[in-house]
Write a structure and sequence with these properties.
seven-stranded antiparallel β-sheet, single chain, globular, mainly beta
Amino acid sequence: MNKGLKILAAVLAVLAVAAGVVYFLTRPETPKSTLKAPRVYDYAASDYTAAVKVLGQNGEVFLPTDLSGVYCTAAPDGSVKFYDCANGVMTPSALAVKTVKTKLAATYESIPVTVHYVERDGRVTGFGVFTSDMDKNVDAYAFAFVKLCNKPAGYGAGHLLLADFNKNDLYRVNKTYSEIYNFNLAKGSASTYVSNHTRLIDLNGTFRQDWTMLTDQTVRDLGKSNYFLSSRYYSHYETGVRTDVMELSGNYRPKIVVKDFLGLWFVSDANGLHYLRKTADGFANVLNAGGKEQTLTPFEGDWQTDYLQDGRWLLNKKSLQLTDLMTGAVKTLKGPDCANAAKLFVSPDGEKAVIAFAGVPNENGAVVQTVAYCRTDGSAAVFSEPLLYEESADFLWLDNNTVMSARALAADGKTAGSVVYAYPAE
């Protein structure tokens, strides 16, 4: 730096310091009228507390089973209870509860789980929970949730045991399972279907959790096919975003039936295979019949940012147009601005929906959540308060007019339980 530049830099530095001193001495005081006192949240007097009916007590959160009208609770201590539901009221199930002990082979470890199950008309539904507190010899897995169910028709006769190792999924309605076991109910033995010879290690040190995937919805919609989902050929960050459909087998490399579709929604029925496919200017609802793809409905925009999906239902967050991907029918929901909406849960008839927004801190630091109960006709009921729903739990429709979710049951937010919201008549 030459002499002139050094002098100029020194002068500017002195002026900057002087200006800062002048501002500090002369800055205006913040008017007291603009200072906001922290708002005290009144749980008992909240609009949402008055609008819902509390079902769960002492941390009970109800989950669906594969039997109509039967629900369960699954606690981190491994206990599982079953309930019959009528008109939004849960009572202990009249079905006999049985248990079976098993061990899951996962990343060369043996995870002990007790499965509690009930049976009706030849259909079995059961659940079990494992935590590392139950067996200190299990190092790689801190948690496991297992589901026992009848095999889809394409898998043959017998039962499946599905395992989800993500503890944040405990209260998810539509879980994503990362291990598929052929289960012998009489012996309590579980064996894996798919080869792990080329399976890579996940970020947490276990086998990749996207190698063999099934969701609760996929199991119901497999029809007569013997498929499973996988994101093994994509990065960890694309799990459940870029997905392949593979044919169940013990082959070294299972056959790919559908390559690189969007999300985890997949249906196999008499018409063919249904899924979403990325396009040059957006994405499309595709029907694959005999290996030939047919575009049913094209969509503009980005599937991840511009839309919300709940199984067969796809919502445009800007227009609030709700598309039934299986029929192509389009309805428009009445609701608030959903540009920042995070989750969608649609009633069975497609006439109503719950739209949940991620919590946002207000000016006082309190996290305010927003839930919108929307219709295709009439007005929307919108609630914006703290403690409206548990971030790691889903909304579950009991029927076309009643929806259940988990929320805090006290102002301190420490205890959660299930509540029911019944849509008022318009």
